[in-house]
Amino acid sequence: MSKRKRFMLPETEIPTQWYNITAEMKNKPLPMINPQTKEELKAEDLFPLFAEELSRQEVNQTDTWIDIPDEVRDKYKIYRPTPLVRATELEKALDTPAHIYFKNESVSPVGSHKLNSALPQAYYNKVDGTTNITTETGAGQWGTALAFAAKAFGLELAVYMVKISYEQKPYRRSLMQTWGAQVIASPSMSTKAGRKIITDHPNYQGSLGTAISEAIELAMQTENCKYALGSVLNHVSLHQTIIGLEAEKQMEMADEYPDIVIGCFGGGSNFSGISFPFMRHNFTGEKKTRFVAAEPASCPKLTRGEFKYDFGDETGYTPLIPMFTLGHKFTPANIHAGGLRYHGAGSIVSQLLKDGYIEAVDIKQLDSFNAGVLFARTEGIVPAPESNHAIAAAINEALKAKEEGKKKVILFNLSGHGFVDMSAYDQFLAGDLTNHVVSDEDISKFLTEV
Description:
Layout: E1 6-7, E2 17-19, H1 52-59, E3 65-67, H2 70-76, E4 84-86, H3 88-94, E5 99-104, H4 115-127, E6 132-137, H5 141-152, E7 156-162, H6 163-168, H7 170-178, E8 182-186, H8 192-200, H9 208-221, E9 225-227, H10 234-240, H11 242-253, E10 260-264, H12 269-283, E11 290-296, H13 301-304, E12 306-311, E13 320-325, H14 347-354, E14 359-363, H15 365-379, H16 385-404, E15 409-414, H17 422-429, H18 440-447
Parallel strand pairs: 5-15, 6-7, 6-9, 7-8, 10-11, 10-15, 11-14
Antiparallel strand pairs: 1-4, 2-3, 4-5, 12-13
């Protein structure tokens, strides 16, 4: 009998609750700190910036399960549940005894997992009576998702898009504008933070930290406006757990359980989403799954950064967050995986890395594209440059299984497709891409400024 390829859940099996991992962590993530008073932030301290329910979710360390509002779940039905797919053709190409599965989040209308958090964030802001929201976006995936979600709930949206991605990925910009968002290349002259950066560094191509600074500044200066973030924060990781909760049911359909769970890593949203629901079984000792975060070698906060309190943005508008960081003024190389070009890691993932529950690997840009091309030629899907990092890590694990002669069950998250990233593939296939590896000197330089 041929191997089953796709594992599909009916619409009725969309989860009704998100999983809040902090409630079950032995060592809770450290709190965010007000940089002026040095006091722990409470939910109400975040109300001026975030929707009230999102602020409460951010600091909730007691409720293991948090209900998904019916209005959000109805919007999830547009694309959820997403397929779990066995990568049988990739297995053949690698001649590995490993069984490789991927959760295909690229089937969402916006082409990535980001809509899982964009919809609830837009909903909760609508409930609060907010009319306008601001955000940042690296590769454009988050901005695209929030543009769709804002339109779905009747909100106006301004997106600060990292300038290098604004230029590299014009069709993501077009998607955001099609759904009604205003898109501004960051750094820009529209904010104090942007003007200072342009004045100091006229040719600066931007970073997520810069774009966050601009989006926060605009939100704080605009009436009835709030800010939304697509990664790093606890409430974003919470919403993304819908990925792993579905995958658990689908792995049961496949009559297998993952030995290794892998996600690419920028700030932590898709990695958290695929891994946290499975990780709760490690907490009880019931399972011994390995969890691998695959980050770019050019922005190695997990593999080479330091754990300390740092700002989430470049200018210093955010609270201080306990994280593995390269320093908030660190400037990543202009790799095409724009969604992974962020200096820090979320506080939950950072604590889990400290406690040994997860591992991290760094992937060079050319290795990631080689993996993405092999995946496209075997499984037929052209992955986003970000997702290529997870694929490269999965391939490495499958080849280790081949060397050891052991069957391993590998699950990774295909966080998005690359159909609007084809200029990156053009450059790769033409031999025009290079690897970028940050030096110890640069890492030390920026960390001393924290």
